[in-house]
Amino acid sequence: MMISPILMKFDFSVTFSLLWQFYGKSMIIFALTMLLSTPLGLLVCVCRMSKFKPLQLITKLYISAMRGTPLMLQLVVVFFAPYYVFGIRISNDYRFWAVIIGFAINYAAYFAEIYRGGIEAIKVGQYEAAEVLGFTKAQTFFRIILPQVIKIVLPSITNETITLVKDTSLAFAISYVEMFTTAKQCVTSQSSILPLFVAGAFYYVTNLVVAFLLERAEKKLSYYR
């Protein structure tokens, strides 16, 4: 029985070991992006819904720019802007932070619009009832509105979170070595496409776990129905 030349060149143990090593870097991008973009998105949402027109307009333009241009382009701009705009020399350490900044400001724009949709879905009567009961605006938002908004927006947040896991591969645009970049290097060194399938399995399993956890969270919030 003849073995395919592709399989003969493919070394699963080496590939798995390398991808596992750099999988951690991909997950760091994922975790820090979620940690920063989730509250930032809420802040952007508040500015977007502000009655102060200039602030509202600036926020609309920001959201439009983030959603209307490729994330890869945004990463490149964030990485090279300090040098070409301000004349600041770029260090190799900044490459990582450029990835985090680029991802955070991009996903914050998407989360802001998701939050806005959830907030606008809350009936006005709930605000009025809270006012009658003596709640301040801050208390009304954090104790009454926000818990319901989280329930409403969680399915959309789940979709964006799954997309983020896959989008971490775009860090290669500014030569930051994470799992996808390592998989491409394995393809070149082993003359086999199979390392890409191994990388795909990593992304797929991660998203299964993410989807499972967020679905559990959604069920726990079902009492808001």
Describe the structure concisely.
The protein is built from 9 helices and no strands. With 225 residues, the chain is mostly helical. The longest helix is centred in the N-terminal third of the chain and has 37 residues.
Structure report:
By secondary structure, the protein is mainly alpha-helical. 81% of the residues lie in helices and 0% in strands. It has nine helices and no strands. Helix 2 packs antiparallel against helix 3, helix 2 packs across helix 5 and helix 2 packs antiparallel against helix 8 (179-190). The protein is flat and about 70 Å long. The protein starts with a helix and ends in a 5-residue tail after the last helix.
Distance between termini? Answer: 60 Å
- Which series of helices and strands comes N to C? HHHHHHHHH
Form type = flat
Radius of gyration: 22 Å
Q: How would you sum up the major sheet?
A: none
> For the residues shown, what is the average pLDDT?
89
Q: Which structural class do the helices and strands define?
A: mainly alpha
Unreliably modeled segments: none
Number of strands: 0
Please work out how many helical segments DSSP would assign. 9
Entry keywords:
mainly alpha; 81% helix; 9 helices
What's the arrangement of secondary structure elements?
Layout: H1 5-9, H2 12-48, H3 53-68, H4 71-86, H5 92-120, H6 124-132, H7 137-167, H8 179-190, H9 194-220
Helix pairs in contact: 2-3, 2-5, 2-8, 2-9, 3-5, 4-5, 5-7, 6-7, 7-9, 8-9
